[in-house]
Amino acid sequence: MSTDTRPVTVPTEEPETRPDSPLRAVLRNPTVVTFAVLVVIILGFTVAEPSLFFQGDNFLQIAQNVAILTVVSVGTTFVIITAGVDLSIPAGIVLGEVFTVKALNMVGGLDADAGQTNPGYILAALAGGLLAGLIIGLLNGVVVAYLKVPPLLATLGTLGAGLGMSLVLQKGVNTATYALDPVGHGHWIPGVPNLIPIGVLVVVLGFVLLHLAVFGRHTYAIGSNPESARRAGINVERHLLKVYVIGGVTAGFAGFLSVSYFSTTSIGGHSTDNLQAITAVALGGTSLFGGVGSIIGTLIGVWIPAILNNGLVITGVQPYWQQVAVGFVLIAAVYFDHLRRRSRDRG
Amino acid sequence: MTTVDGNGNGGVPVLAAYRVVKTFGQVRALRGASFEAYPGEVTALVGDNGAGKSTLIKILSGVQPPDDGELRMDGEVVHFANPHDAKDRGIETVYQDLALAPDLDAPANVFLGREIRRWRYLHNHAEMRRRTAAAFRELGVGLVQDMRAPVAAFSGGQKQSVAIARAAMWASKVIIMDEPTAALGVIQTEKVLELIKRVRDRGIAVIFISHNLPEVLQVADRIEVLRLGSRVARFRRGEADVDRLIAAISGAFSNEEVEAA
Known about the structure:
Chain A is an all-alpha fold. Chain A contains 14 helices and no strands. Helix content of chain A is 69%, strand content 0%. In chain A, helix 3 packs across helix 12, helix 4 runs parallel beside helix 6 and helix 5 runs antiparallel to helix 6. Chain B is an alpha/beta fold. In chain B, helix 5 packs parallel to helix 6. At the A-B interface, helix 9 and helix 10 of A face helix 2, strand 8, helix 4, helix 5 and helix 6 of B.
């Protein structure tokens, strides 16, 4: 127990906030550190290969590549802030893909090509993808929040069940469709592939919901101390259910985007998307112990592996080094979170 | 301060329990216990382990309903179905284990579950911070310069101050504190006791549970003693000393007719 030596009574002209020392501000804000890492990586590749790497087109390409991972990582940020985890993301994505093409088939748009498609087909496909995510998310939420099954195992279960159900529904065969090309390959903004504004929109929505809305405040509170949240009158179980629904729905939406971009389901794919999303979220400073995290951090966490991969390819290094580097950066980030907690919990 | 007390000087208790019975299986935790708390007074509730303090507190704060007996607020019979009912009537509880969210800052904790909103779904954190700072200043809590730090960075006494200040901001009638100084060092305890007195001076009834008898004698305006599920003694400030309290707690002294049940 540290002895408190602060005065009880406050001088009348006490400023409301005291500027932190730079070190403390950095310690308190892991996002700054991760962002610095990202900047250093970008600078390094820029120096090594300025004409190829530091180009607008290259960054647009990376942004498009990471858009789908960004969408699921936003959902995963919410889940991890509650001190939970969602391993079922691949199931949400793949089942989202399957429901997307099933919905297209139901409205007769599966065989439409890019010229024949219409907004009705696209909306039906979108609804299919979101519905699949909603089902997975509800399952996760009920099992975690109400049946009190640890999230690691609950979502491991829905991961297997969802992937299996996708294979059953598809009889093990992928379905191709070009009906969603206007989404996956269109340019609503000239020169900018659609996946980029879609990803940005999800990030903005996630930011508002997590950082500005009461919903996000309660999400942090539950991750920080569920008992305090309960005593403050928050319906913890219902809130957790909603958080897992967000995780599921972002995955289902990612499935819709995946079909839009790749013009086919990929029922054997996405198997490491859950680990990539968790990596991104953890790199971004969101604590796996719950209660701490940010959407901007997650965005940075998505970009570090992507920039590494891209830069290594451009500089002619084996891109497999990316996995090695990301692994170590991840360990460093989580160790840093641990240190920060220890230095903070002095009370 | 207008002192009214439960020993026959008139005045209506803001929160009172009469002839309360609570049984858990074979265990009769409360056997016709009574308790009274008056506005602007610190009422200490003391008793040995198993005397029924915790059960009585849970009933007063709406966590559990009594099997028999009645609760009254300002003389009127009330029923609490849950802690929310009690909160709605201006009763706040400070729990022994603080019940703060360590990763949130003080304003977020103070307003948790009761956020000031704008556009219905968003929180107005600047306004919550402003009001929290104002309340902390008014209560002399300090910490006004630490409004942005997560409460995990606070010392035990500072955390307890946040918890008490939160209760004081929301309680219009009664604050119940279950051993608020149990985990604190000497200096921090002193500060928390000062804060309790300031809260009392705002006209709130403070119900204070503690095992630390010198501390009880220092801060309490009235002391009620529970033994084996019944009230066995009541003292006004100055009437009791440590020896007398120990006698009452252990059953060697009573100034109360043992009530029914």
